[in-house]
């Protein structure tokens, strides 16, 4: 970010009063600071929080004499806001398990992007691909990983067992998702990750298993150290499956007696971590009404939950054009930027041991 952009943001953020949409906190109320009694009485904290985070990561005050064609290192995010060089690390196995026939399966972390220079523990994000718990769409989350790495985060996209390859069910997918979060937290020191700022997200079925790491109890891998929490500090969900009954998506994978066991909507409690959801209003795969009900129930339980709707958009609208060429690049950009703003506004999620 250039100096003139920083100055513009500071001027905007510190001008009073702020009452328009998009500049308030999740509850819709304008944040004010009692410490600014001489002039700055209506500072927008979300913007200031973002500026302070960017400064701490070295993202701001880019040299003005930097060549225009100077690009980041391998895996540079194509967003104009990306001013930090990032690197892609080698894939790493996080879990060894078996398929439905007891054949060995090694699950890896893919698209491991992070800032080129990491001097202190950083927030992390794990993003699960979608595909109805059946398809293995390993490339789906790569551009999101690049974007967030360019903003100063450590990013990765975990693989998990799917029915078309391993012959497994959503239960194994949830089991793997919990193992992935637990592995990251257990190895946080070596990975240079802040274990109290781990975000988990995903799209569609990937959003479902991400939500399950926080909301659904049990279904852990036998033998894992359960003293290491598999719960995230914040959720980022892209047209997620939140209801697995006949009112939502995926009921055919269950029986009428079991279709609520992995249904996030039916297990919401007052202690769910901050959550942001992106969903198209014309989604015929996962009905928009599902996430409306989910969001309302989150609010009824005093949880922070922000629903960002996309008018007229269908399932999978959020995909980057490098993965789905028919998608609108603007939708990916909104999802990425709104997500990061939400991360900053919520200090990357619930602090302390989840």
UniProtKB/TrEMBL annotation:
The keyword Hydrolase applies. GO terms for molecular function: carboxylesterase activity; triacylglycerol lipase activity. It comes from the Bacteria. It is an enzyme of class 3 (hydrolase). Gene3D superfamilies: alpha/beta hydrolase. It comes from Anaerohalosphaera lusitana. This is Carboxylesterase NlhH. Pfam families: BD-FAE, DLH. Residues 113-214 form the BD-FAE-like domain. The keyword Hydrolase applies. Its EC number is 3.1.1.1. Keywords: Hydrolase. Residues 268-322 form the Dienelactone hydrolase domain. Belongs to the 'GDXG' lipolytic enzyme family.
């Amino acid at each position: 970010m250039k100096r003139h952009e920083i100055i513009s943001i500071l001027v905007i953020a510190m001008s009073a009063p702020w009452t328009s949409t998009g500049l308030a906190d999740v509850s819709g109320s304008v944040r004010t600071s009692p410490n600014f009694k001489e002039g700055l009485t209506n500072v927008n904290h979300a913007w200031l929080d973002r500026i302070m985070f960017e400064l701490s990561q070295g993202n701001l005050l880019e040299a003005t004499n930097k060549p225009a064609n100077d690009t980041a290192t391998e895996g540079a995010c194509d967003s104009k806001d990306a001013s930090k060089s990032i690197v892609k690390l080698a894939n790493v196995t996080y879990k060894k398990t078996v398929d439905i026939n007891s054949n060995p399966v090694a699950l890896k972390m893919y698209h491991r992007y992070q800032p080129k220079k990491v001097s202190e523990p950083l927030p992390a994000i794990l993003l699960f691909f979608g595909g109805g718990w059946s398809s293995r769409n390993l490339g789906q989350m790569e551009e999101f990983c690049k974007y967030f790495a360019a903003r100063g985060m450590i990013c990765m996209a975990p693989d998990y067992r799917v029915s078309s390859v391993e012959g497994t069910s959503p239960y194994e997918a949830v089991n793997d998702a919990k193992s992935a979060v637990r592995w990251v937290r257990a190895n946080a020191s070596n990975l240079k990750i802040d274990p109290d700022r781990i975000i988990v997200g995903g799209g569609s079925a990937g959003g479902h298993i991400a939500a399950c790491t926080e909301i659904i109890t049990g279904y852990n891998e036998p033998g894992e150290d359960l003293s290491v929490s598999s719960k995230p500090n914040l959720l980022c969900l892209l047209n997620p499956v939140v209801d697995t009954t006949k009112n939502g998506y995926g009921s055919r994978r269950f029986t009428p007696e079991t279709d609520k066991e992995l249904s996030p909507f039916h297990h919401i409690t007052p202690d769910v971590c901050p959550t942001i959801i992106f969903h198209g209003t014309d989604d015929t795969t996962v009905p928009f009404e599902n996430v409306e009900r989910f969001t309302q129930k989150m609010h009824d339980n005093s949880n922070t939950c922000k629903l960002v709707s996309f008018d007229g958009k269908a399932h999978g609208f959020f995909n980057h054009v490098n993965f789905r060429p028919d998608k609108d690049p603007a939708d990916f950009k909104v999802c990425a930027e709104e997500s990061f703003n939400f991360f900053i506004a919520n200090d990357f999620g619930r602090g302390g041991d989840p």
